[in-house]
Structures are given as structure tokens and as C-alpha cells.
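User: Could you go from structure to sequence for me? I need the amino acid at each position, not a summary. C-alpha cells:
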């Protein structure tokens, strides 16, 4: 680590993963923060920097290093704190960087007999209920599917490039130390994905290359249905892969099939088409599904279902004990079913804060002007249903609608118009008689209505809920 790198770390001040200490005179407080970082996503204590971000340095002697080592020994369970010394320019003084890299299944960590946690820029004694929950998680950690040994899997069965990509993105996001090397075995150890040299199931979920016949649950099901039920497919895929490749496949499928909602912007002649749902909210929901699903069921999968009027994302497994569906839209404790898998998603920058994913989904949808999504738990699965903010023309009412008829419906959803203005809004308008025939066909289906006579006549979209024109 260089002085420039330290400057970049401290320029924005203290954070949830960074603490600044002027000297080792504050070593006890520094160790409390290291303990808090171990109980979270990790973090750094930089000694020799004032809280205001001024690098003042300190004289680091053998006694200083011995004092630090003795203090760190009071953190339990035993852990490794990475230590880096960086000399100030033209000075005998140095900056000392202490980095805590947690092993999730070892939590809770304690220092001098007390557990600590990080909230914002503050280190505090952990509340009793949080401590008891972490103890419970640790007690059950050895029986989780994700940390069981992966039978017959060695390093050659894992995607080396994806492992190295995790390191690159983790360093860029400030969530892995820059000292992390390029040895896949060492990286897996740092991420808690090997146990005594044995690769565990979580590593296969995250980086595997071969999934049949032993890992059939590493699957995603993608469907675009015609209409508003599951009677008929427009497209249907079932894919196997590691979690990051399945995430990419799901987002590509959604982008290809997701209906767009058009809007007219003042001063712009052409209609602007936007995705009907916020892509970031969809990605957040997918990441949540991969982190929280029950991988112990070999027949399970993450599922994406796109309908004319909604999009649903489902994952196998019920909510953690003590959580209810209604809790997902408000502050709630983070209880990932697969903390090792969730931790790697965090280090890659795909998870911002544990316990905030479902709230983030809601916030992104509301900010984009959509209704709040619906969270559902049924038949041993958890789903999120996204609803559009605007009308989306159906593919099927009684029988298939043509692309042109759907375009007419979408135009009339914006405002009621006479025939000539409908044609002016169409991408490639056919003959007037063709558009008129389409309109009367839609009228027969009860989807539009004509009001007025002659050139003043206008076509209106029918409201389905009360059968009145828009």
C-alpha cells in the first residue's frame, strides 16, 4: 500500500468500514473497531491519521508492534489482522494500516469479553438480541448446505477467471485488501470457501463449471408468457451455471423481453421508450434470490416469469425464522440463509448493505413512479412481484393481438385521439383503412370505444376495472 492509496482511502473520512486513529495511544478503541469490522463486512483502522484526515504518522518501534499484537490477542475467536506499515515522505514516522477480514461463520467476535458492531461511523457494544442471533447462527453454521464439503470437486472444476474477477472487483470496491493475490486456493481461503483445504458447496455455487449430475440446483428458469397467465410461452429457458453467470443471463433475458412504456417528452418529436420496470430494482431482487435461496433442495431454482402486466422473481425456500413478509418493507435484521455466498456478493459490490435489499427494491420502484412491489411467501418459496406504473398493451384478448394492434392500444393509453393522430404516432403506419379496421376490431373486443362524429370523433382506451373510457 502506498501513501497515495492511503490518501484515497481517507479523503472521504471515516465510514462503516474505515476508522482513523491519531496514534496507538488509542489502541483499545482501535481494537474495538476491528472487532466491530469482524462482526460486519470487514474494515480498516488507519493509525497515524487524525479524524480530520491529516496524515501525521507515528514512530513505530518493536514495542509498538508488540503492544498491537498483545491487544489483538484479546479478540476472540482467534483471527488474523493484516498489518501494513507505510513510511511518510522525508520522515522517520509511519502510517500503520490494520485490516480486519472476517470469517462469517466465526461471528460473533468479542474484544475483552464484549461484542462490538459498526453503525455508520460509530463503534458500539452490540445489542444483546443481535449477539444472541449471531451465536445461534454460529451454532448452526456447521450444518448449513453451503459450507458442506463439495464431493469430488477440486480447483480445476472452478472458474479461475471468475475467482480473479471477484478479487479485481472486490479491490475496486474497497471490500478486499489490495494485498489479495492471484492464487485461487488462497483466495478461496480468504473468502471462507475452503475448509481445511477442502472446497465447499458455496464455492461451486459461486464459481463452479460443472453442475450435472450433482448440482442441479445451480439453475435459473426464465419464461416470457403470452398474456397474464402461464397457459402459453413466448420464450422459455432453463440454464445451469454459477451464480454470477446466471445473474447475467437473467438480466439479458429480462432486457430482451421486458415490455417498454412509451412517453411523450415536451420538445421531443419522437416518443421515448423506457423499461417498464427499473433495471436496478430487478437486479437487486435477483441478487437477493441468489443469496437467500435454499440450495439444499436439488430440484430448486431461481425463477423469472414475465407476463403482459407484471414480472415475478421467485426463489426456493421460506423466510428466515422470525421474519414475516410485511417486515421486508421496513428495517429488519439481516439473516442471510447463505452468509458465505452473500459475503462474496457483497465483496463484488452487488450487495450494498445487508438487510436493506428488499427496502432498496421498494425505494427504486417508488422513485421511478411505480407501485410498491409485492412480496409473497407461498408453497415453500419467496417471490417479489413488480407491477407497472402505466398501461401495457396485452398480447392476447380472446386471441392473439397483432403488434400493430398493441401499438394502437399503447398510443391510446397516453391520450384519446382521432384516427389521423393515431396514425401520426405509429412507427410505420399502414393504410388508413387498415388502422380503422384494427380499431373496430379492438372495439369489438371491448378494448376501445369511439365517441363523437366526423373529424371530431376520438378513440378512447377502455378501463378494464369499470368498463369506462379512459
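Assistant: Here is the amino acid at each position, in order:
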Amino acid at each position: 500500500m502506498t501513501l497515495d492509496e492511503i490518501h484515497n482511502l481517507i479523503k472521504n473520512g471515516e465510514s462503516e468500514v474505515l476508522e482513523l486513529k491519531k496514534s496507538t495511544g488509542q489502541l483499545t478503541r482501535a481494537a474495538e473497531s476491528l472487532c466491530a469490522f469482524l462482526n460486519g463486512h470487514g474494515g480498516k483502522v488507519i493509525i497515524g491519521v487524525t479524524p480530520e484526515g491529516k496524515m501525521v504518522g507515528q514512530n513505530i518501534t518493536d514495542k509498538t508492534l508488540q503492544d498491537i499484537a498483545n491487544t489483538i490477542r484479546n479478540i476472540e475467536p482467534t483471527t488474523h489482522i493484516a498489518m501494513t506499515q507505510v513510511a511518510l515522505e522525508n520522515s522517520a514516522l509511519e502510517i500503520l494500516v490494520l485490516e480486519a477480514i472476517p470469517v462469517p461463520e466465526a461471528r460473533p467476535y468479542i474484544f475483552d469479553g464484549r461484542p462490538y458492531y459498526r453503525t455508520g461511523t460509530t463503534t458500539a457494544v452490540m445489542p444483546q438480541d443481535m449477539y444472541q442471533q449471531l451465536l445461534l447462527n454460529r451454532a448452526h453454521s456447521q450444518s448449513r448446505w453451503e459450507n458442506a464439503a463439495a464431493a469430488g470437486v477440486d480447483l480445476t472444476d472452478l472458474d479461475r477467471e471468475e475467482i480473479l474477477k471477484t478479487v479485481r472487483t472486490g479491490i475496486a470496491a474497497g471490500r478486499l485488501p489490495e494485498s489479495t493475490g492471484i492464487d485461487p486456493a488462497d483466495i478461496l481461503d480468504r473468502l471462507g470457501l475452503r475448509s481445511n483445504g477442502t472446497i465447499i458447496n458455496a464455492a461451486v455455487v459461486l464459481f463452479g463449471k460443472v453442475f450435472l449430475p450433482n448440482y442441479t440446483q445451480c439453475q435459473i428458469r426464465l419464461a416470457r408468457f403470452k398474456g397474464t397467465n402461464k397457459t402459453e410461452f413466448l420464450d422459455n429457458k432453463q440454464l445451469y451455471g454459477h451464480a454470477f453467470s446466471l445473474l447475467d443471463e437473467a438480466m439479458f433475458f429480462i432486457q430482451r423481453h421486458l415490455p417498454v412504456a412509451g412517453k411523450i417528452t415536451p420538445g421531443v418529436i419522437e416518443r421515448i421508450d423506457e423499461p417498464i420496470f427499473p433495471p436496478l430494482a430487478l437486479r437487486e431482487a435477483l441478487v437477493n434470490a441468489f443469496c437467500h435461496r435454499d440450495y439444499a433442495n436439488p430440484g430448486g431454482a431461481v425463477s423469472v416469469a414475465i407476463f403482459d402486466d407484471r414480472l415475478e422473481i421467485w426463489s426456493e425456500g421460506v423466510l428466515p425464522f422470525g421474519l414475516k413478509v410485511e417486515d421486508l418493507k421496513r428495517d429488519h435484521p439481516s439473516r442471510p440463509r447463505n452468509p458465505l455466498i452473500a459475503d462474496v456478493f457483497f465483496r463484488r459490490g452487488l450487495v450494498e448493505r445487508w438487510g436493506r435489499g428488499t427496502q432498496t427494491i421498494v425505494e427504486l420502484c417508488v422513485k421511478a413512479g411505480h407501485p410498491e412491489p409485492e412480496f409473497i411467501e407461498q408453497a415453500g418459496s419467496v417471490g417479489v412481484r413488480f407491477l407497472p406504473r402505466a398501461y401495457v398493451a396485452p398480447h392476447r384478448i380472446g386471441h392473439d393481438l397483432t403488434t400493430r394492434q398493441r401499438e394502437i392500444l399503447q398510443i391510446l393509453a397516453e391520450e384519446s385521439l382521432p384516427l389521423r393522430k393515431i396514425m401520426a404516432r405509429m412507427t410505420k403506419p399502414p393504410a388508413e383503412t387498415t388502422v380503422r379496421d384494427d380499431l373496430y376490431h379492438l372495439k369489438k373486443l371491448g378494448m376501445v370505444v369511439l365517441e363523437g362524429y366526423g373529424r371530431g370523433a376520438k378513440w378512447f382506451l377502455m378501463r378494464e376495472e369499470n368498463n369506462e373510457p379512459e
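One structural detail worth keeping in mind: Confidence is low (pLDDT under 50) at residues 262-272, 464-470.
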